[in-house]
Amino acid sequence: MDFSAIKFQIMFMIQRSQKPMVLTASKLLPVNIAQFGDIVQKSYSFYLVLKNRF
Fold it and tell me: Where does the source fall among the domains of life (predicted)?
């Protein structure tokens, strides 16, 4: 086994996990995971209202 490659991959994952993950909406607005979940939940609720209405 090549432990140096595994060590490099683990160090890379640790380094990447130090920064919070941020999505961008149309390359303009940063959206965090909580906001994204809220948007998806509200969109799905709106979809269900329209589906049941029409």
Answer: Eukaryota
